[in-house]
Amino acid sequence: MALLGTLVFLFIRTLGFDARRDADTATLLRELRALDLRVDGDAGRLANDYSAAQPPAIDRSPLIFRALHELEQRASPEVAPKIQGLRADVSDKLAALAALRLAHADSVAALQTSEEALSQLTSEAAAARAKRPGSANATYAVEGQSEGLRYRLREAGVETQAEDARTIEAVLMRLQAAAASADPALAAAASRAEAAAKGFVAALAAESVAFRKVTFHPAGARIERLTQQLGRMVDGQLDDQQRWRTYLFFYAAALLILAGALAARVVSGQAALRAANETLEKRVAERTTELTATLAQLKESEAQLVQTEKMSSLGQMIAGVAHELNTPLAYVKNSLWSVRSRMPDLRDALVQAERLKVILQSESPDAADLQEAFAALGARLKQLEAHHVMEDLDSLTKDGVHGIEQISELVTNLKNFSRVDRSHVSSFNVNEGVQATLLIARTQLRNVAIDKRLGEIPSITCSPSQVNQVLLNLLTNAAQALDKPGGRITVATRVVDAGAIAIDVEDNGRGIDPEVLPKIFDPFFTTKEVGKGTGLGLSIAYKIVQQHGGFFDVRSEVGVGSTFTVTLPLQPPAALARAVNEEATA
């Protein structure tokens, strides 16, 4: 009985722990972390959308609290006490998100109020100009400052709130001065516009505080720590289980040797051993199935994160294009409005000329009427000349044409950036891709000096949209590495040999630590704060270059800068088209 009791004891110890329960706990923690990332995404999208028609808010709290409740029900005794603290953190983050939504609604309402006040000021300026034509230049200045303030208000954001507040304050001072100079009656409208704008600045400041509280909240980090602790605990339990299995194996072997000496107990001993082995095999099979399912879930999560990274790049590209279009559109619009404001003077001159023509064509023109017509036409022409109307019209039309040319150039580069479907492989000039990508990323590179050294290189066969994505990721990373004034990025293309070209992206940023450098292409590796990066940008770029038969070379010195070199063959591997098709259908 003692021998059998020892065997049972060893068998029970091999059971160790409830693997299904811990696997369920790990799955719930991953689900909770994914929901936390979606909350961060909701905050980011909300803080960058000041349109009047706000999309309905997505309430993720039921899913989050369901996951927390299931964690409390299923977690092991070692993990359960930590769920209460996690629930408090998550509840606090959801409350912070709700506060952000309220603050954002206040900002949107304040922005609408500001735009209405500015529209009223513009209308009153136009009315003042109609009553006092001599104040045209001054009222136009008021309208220009009003449009400038409107543009600054629309461009303001929570991440640049402090700088935007100083810029708006400066524009408000110029607007007040222009209004007072143009017509004292405009001062009241200008004061209303100023009050509305300051209200928006205050609302934006409150929203910025709420946004930082959401994005820097420690709930996500607590989930990550708890997941890691659970993983270490499971690893330790698996080690203990394996050790007890080893003990069981040797003890069973000893029993078999003993059974040879105890013939009467051979049959019962073998039956017990077979039963024990079958039970162990069944449990191993069950655990293998559970681990396979967990691995499949991890792969699905990775695929979702890769898609999130791709959508993030697309969002950055669209935001950059919209920002770049605003400036030329604004001064094209202002030029056209200014041209339109000159038309009444020209139309009046034409009326005076037509009247003079009628008098001259009559059989017996009256001398007094003729003299009066000549005098009126002459006065009007002198007025046009004194106001430099023709010169202004020529300048304004040139400005309008220049703005249209800028818009045309931006659209052409955007078309070049994504002109080929992701599932197609074709001939591509990398220099054109560099030009298009620099224009698309101009918003992120606004304060960076760009040095282009594009050599004479042949076209390559590739997936153009994927190569453009690699260029965009490298330029974005280089811009984010510039943490000091005088930032510079050098982009160069060159021929490596008869069968390959190279693209160099060099920055004079902070550089990469030697211990971090070997990890930069690992999936999900990032040195950014939690919630500010997925760590997939360089990983995706590495995969694209590898599929094209190329390779990366990275040189970096801390405090000096980094150089990323991409080498691509002129003719990629035959498997590229298949890989691109799989990527496109993923």
CATH fold node name of the domain at 423-585: Heat Shock Protein 90
In this structure, how is the largest beta sheet organized? 5 strands, mixed
The separation of the N and C termini measures 61 Å
Mean pLDDT: 78
The name of the CATH superfamily of the domain at 423-585 reads Histidine kinase-like ATPase, C-terminal domain
**Largest beta sheet: strand ordering:** 2-4-5-7-6
The CATH C-level class name of the domain at 423-585: Alpha Beta
CATH architecture of the domain at 423-585: 2-Layer Sandwich
Which structural class should the secondary elements be placed in? alpha+beta
Oligomeric category: single chain
Can you describe this structure?
Helices cover 71% and strands 8% of the residues. With 586 residues, the chain is of the alpha+beta class. Among the domains are: 103-215; 320-413; 423-585, Heat Shock Protein 90 (2-Layer Sandwich). The strands form two sheets. It has a five-stranded mixed β-sheet with strand order 2-4-5-7-6, with helices on one face. It has a two-stranded antiparallel sheet with strand order 1-3. A hairpin with a 3-residue loop joins strand 6 and strand 7 (561-569). Helix 2 runs antiparallel to helix 3 (61-74), helix 2 (19-47) packs antiparallel against helix 8 and helix 6 (161-182) runs antiparallel to helix 7 (186-215). The longest helix is centred in the middle third of the chain and has 96 residues, at 266-361. The two termini are 61 Å apart.
